[in-house]
Design goal:
- With 163 residues, this protein is of the alpha+beta class.
- Helix 3 runs antiparallel to helix 4.
Length: 163
């Protein structure tokens, strides 16, 4: 991946050539074919991903609920941020809706980078915080819809039949 390629990724927008060059060793380009699973819900969270090409569906299943789509991540979108939040596992599943090219960044590598390049690290972390906050705002309405659909006509919570 070239420094010029990273200049088009919003996570690195406005970074100097030196800053982008310092980040570049952290990045690993990966290709995934359509229907490939990038990671499963509950799998150890090692990497943060940024979509360069294609689209990834991020889905979540509560232990007793249906699988819900929490994000559709297209070019320049970030997913898999459990790894940089210090969570041991991914909270969702990510599956490719089409052939995809992504780059991934090790959560531990990101932590070391922020320690050794604090000025650039702070900017990266602020941008990731914004990504997470936007994601949570968007997911809120989806969860509300599911909860609303789960309430019976008389306002009592929906209960699944015991099998």
């Amino acid at each position: 991946m070239l420094v010029s390629d990273l200049a088009h990724v919003s996570l690195f927008a406005g970074f100097s050539a030196d800053q982008v060059t310092s980040i570049q060793p952290l990045l690993e380009v990966r290709d995934f074919s359509k229907d490939s699973i990038v990671f499963e819900q509950g799998e150890t969270a090692h990497y943060l991903y940024v979509v360069l090409k294609g689209e990834v569906l991020v889905r979540y299943r509560a232990y007793d609920g249906p699988m819900i789509t929490v994000a559709r991540s297209g070019p320049d979108s970030v997913f898999g941020w459990s790894s940089v939040l210090g969570r041991p596992t991914y909270s969702s599943q990510a599956i490719c809706l089409e052939d995809c090219v992504v780059f991934r960044i090790s959560g531990k590598g990101m932590q070391r980078f922020c320690e050794t390049h604090p000025d650039t690290g702070v900017i990266l972390l602020e941008r990731l915080a914004n990504v997470v906050a936007d994601h949570l705002r968007n997911t809120h309405s989806q969860i509300l819809t599911i909860l609303t659909e789960g309430v019976g006509n008389n306002g009592t919570p929906f209960r699944r039949p015991v099998e």
